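Hi L.,

As promised, IS3 family transposase:
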Amino acid sequence: MIVAEIRTITDEFECYGYRHVGVELRHRGQIINAKKARRLMREHDLTPRRRRRFTRTADSDHDGPIFPFVARDFEVHGPDQLWVADLTYVAIGAGFVYVAVVLDA
């Protein structure tokens, strides 16, 4: 009976682990120990699906203009002829910070 209830919860919320499942069971009126929920989920292969950490930030499939790569055939013979740049963000404990790099090719 408990396993069937856990199965319905994990089908409804795929990313719920044993802690969230225990809270949801309490909301539904069944009190279960976290260790028991963990054991039952492991025995019946009801492990949660991991959330994807990778987030695509560039959208290449758009209707906007796509600019040509003009520096493809450009030969660099000295400094200050071709500059390249990139902008990205790095996750830190308090959120994220932007990192901008400009280089003389």
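The mean pLDDT is 88.

Thanks again for sending the construct details.

K.
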